[in-house]
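Let us practice reading a record.
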Amino acid sequence: MSDVIAKKPSPEILELFDNPYPGRDFLITHVCPEFTSLCPKTGQPDYGTITFEYIADKLCVELKSLKFYLQAYRNEGVFYERLTNQILDDMVAAMKPRYIKVTADFTPRGGLHSKIVAQYVAPEWSGEGGCGCGCGGE
């Protein structure tokens, strides 16, 4: 991975490392409170907080690469709904987690506040470890 911000978001930006406890369900939370993308209609910046909550299977995401991945959206004109689901799809494609929830909480604009939540649960995951994340695996 380069220390240069990518021009386009892509799951290939994400670096991974081995889960140190693959036999245990534990919740990992990462929060990016300074997320920026562009409104596809006006070109004006959208600001928000992106929160990741996931239970890794074999792989975890490395934080510097996650930061660069998210920064690649700064020049992307994208609706919140597409953005949130694309981030989820990219994270699932890269990590193949047991469970992941992506919450995109955008600052108010024009009197409206938007919060988009997308999640994925691996079909083969039973959630018997009781992660406590509210995903239904308790």
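A brief commentary: The beta strands are 16-18, 28-38, 45-55, 59-61, 99-106, 115-121.
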